[in-house]
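Risk mitigation, structural track. In case the binding assays with uridine-diphosphate-N-acetylglucosamine fail to produce interpretable data, a predicted complex structure has been prepared as a fallback.
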Amino acid sequence: MDKIVIEGSYPLRGEIRISGAKNSAIKLMAVPLLTDRPVTLTNMPRLRDTRSMGGLLEHLGLSVEQDGDSTLKLHAPDLAGTEAPYDLVRKMRASFNVLGPILAREGQARVSLPGGCAIGARPVDLHLKALEALGAKIELEQGYVIASAKGGLKGAEISFPFVSVGATEHAMLAAVLAKGETVLMNAAREPEIVDLADCLNAMGAKITGAGRSEVRIEGVASLSGTTHSVVPDRIEAGTYALAAATAGGSVRLTNVRHDHLGALWPLIAQAGARVSLDDDSVLIERGTGRPNPVDIDTSAYPGFPTDLQAQFMALVGLADGTSIIRENIFENRFMHCPELIRMGADITVRGREAIVRGVPEYVGAPVMATDLRASASLVNAGLAARGETHISRVYHLDRGFEHIEVKLGNCGAHIRRMPDEEG
Ligand code: UD1
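Fallback model:
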């Protein structure tokens, strides 16, 4: 297993091109399950998670062909089977979303439950209720969901009790080929939902309202193929913007949809960095001096994303004052706190709140990546720290950040990947 070693205290200067969004790409990869025509995805990130999803799709009989660096060609004239086994689903939770498309296409599916994960229980009850509302018969057996819809899925009204990105996407994927109209109420409004709807609509689906709380889907009999460009990754962009704000320097991010991070920019500016928004690029600059304290409260889009909470904490951990960080989406998403504390941070966690008393500096230390976004906060803290930080369990980072050491290295970061004898 690899580790990342960072020698900190070098400001970042340069340009970083943002990749396609992981969270969109892995859902878009389920789309070809709904058609016998080819689907080509461009602006695809090359990540551990997209490789895991590719492996599952190949198991289901799809041809998965990488064409150059960022194009993926997917084609499923027929499916080889209707089962997604535990070994393939457990690697990545979002692969559970193949259930709806397989069910829509074949009338039956057997998909392993994804299980919990480090940031909380993360159940799939809303996914299953949505599929049941669409007429599926669902049984749970030995860790698997066995779903059937002999006469095909039927449009329905589905009102989510709270906002779920995954359940909204799953319901959309299942409803596009259902008979009649489906209305999703209290749907998630994330840009990745709009990206999925755009791709499906280009294939002949009839989805309106994606990006709003009420989404309408008029079922169609079949879908054609398409070529679709994956939306830029707002979480990767936010992570590098926060890296520049934390380590100091001047970084231009390109291939960015900065309108997708409307909740972040004013807070970075409040912390003391300069943010200049251009057409599809953003310039972040921060000079010397400590950041200002800033409170944040995570919420569903368009609120402050939970996926940037850990990285924001690494920034305000150095502030001249105290910040309160409240996590409202996941019940256990403060695992980065003990690791930041190892680097000298002063943080107290009380339930869903972290009280972050700013310290003048971080000091490099051996730390452990615990989940994908938490690992990114340790990288950002390491960039600012005095001395060397060793981050082990880098596979978490590789799930969601393409060439992180190369992108940051090009901006002058002293960062390298090396084998971890202890990992
Ligand atoms: C997606 C993102 C993840 C992000 C999260 C919230 C992907 C691959 N992952 O995760 O990076 O942090 O949105 O923006 O896109 N819940 C239930 N029952 C369900 C479904 C969810 O109780 O059936 C709960 C979850 O445990 C969580 C909350 O609802 O507390 C929101 O989860 P959800 O929006 O579904 O997140 P994901 O789609 O898993």
